Amino acid sequence: MVFFSWTSKATILASALFLSVFLGCSQPPLADAADEELRVLFIGNSLSYTHDVPSLVAALAESVGLSLSAFACVCFPNYSLEEHWSDTRTRTALENNAWDVVIMQQGPSSLPESQEHLRTWATRFAEEIRSHDAEPAFYMVWPSIPRRAFFDDVIHSYDQAASTTGSLLFPVGEVWKQVDASTSDFSLYGPDGFHPSQEGAYTAAVVIYSALFDRSPVGLPARLTRPDGTTFDISPAHARTIQEVAQQVLSP
Predict the structure, then answer these.
(1) Are strands 168-170 and 37-44 parallel, antiparallel or unpaired?
(2) Per-residue b/e over 128-155, b at no fewer than 16 CB within 10 Å?
(3) Contact 71/41 with Cβ under 8 angstroms?
(4) pLDDT (tens digit, 9 = 90+) per residue, 123-179?
(5) What is the DSSP letter of 13?
(6) In angstroms, how far is the first alpha carbon of the chain from the final one?
(7) Domains of the chain with bracketed CATH
(8) 74 and 84 in contact (C-beta within 8 Å)?
(9) What pTM was computed for the model?
(10) Is 100 exposed, middle or buried (CB count within 10 Å of its CB: 0-12, 13-18, 19+)?
C-alpha cells in the first residue's frame, strides 16, 4: 500500500488521504452528501483501476464544486468479492476508515453459478459494511466483446445483488450497453476487448458521480484534472454522447 495526500482546489476542508493498491490505483473515503462531500471506498479489480475510475469520479465532483473528501481503491487483478473477503488489506481499508459509501464490483458474473456467487458475497459484504455505518453499493460492469450476447445477464446479476441486499446500484453496464449499440464513432472497450478505454472509464465515472451526488451528468467537462494533478481528456462530442445516454438511464 502506498499513501498519498492532496488538497482540494474546491474547498479547504477537502484534504484527502489516498490509498493506492496495485498499479497506482489512487483512491480515498467519503463524507456527507448534505455537505456536498462524500468519503468513498472502492473494492474491486482491474475494471476499477484501469484508467483509475475512482480518481475520475473525484475529478468530476470537484469540477462542479462537490467533493470526494476522501476516497480509496482496494483493487487487485481478477479479484472476486470472495477473495476480497479473505484479504486483510481489504478488511483493513474497510475497518480503519470512516466511509460513507463502499462501492463493490467483480467480473461480469453472468453465468447462473456466478450470479449466485455474487449474491452470496454481496450479502456478506453488505452486512459488514453497514456494521461500519457505511452504505453498500454496486458498480455494475459489462461483458467482454466476445460475450456481448450476455449483456442482459450481467445487468440482471448486478441488479439482483443490489436488490437482494438493499444496496445502491450504479448501472454502468446499462449505460455501456446503450452507448455500445448506438455509436460506431468510438469504443468503450480497450484494446483487449474487455477493460475500459478512456471513454469506457469516463462512462463508469460519470454514472457513479451522477448517482452518488444525484446530479445530472449533462454538461460535465470532457477534460479533467485528477486530484494528483494529472489530466485526463476525451473528445467533447464523445463525452456528450455518454452523458446523454447516462441521463436517460439514470432518469426515473
Answers:
(1) unpaired
(2) bbeeeebbbbbbbbbbeeeeeebbebbb
(3) yes
(4) 999 999 999 999 999 999 999 999 999 999 999 999 999 999 999 999 999 999 999
(5) T
(6) 40
(7) 2-250 (3.40.50.1110)
(8) yes
(9) 0.87
(10) buried
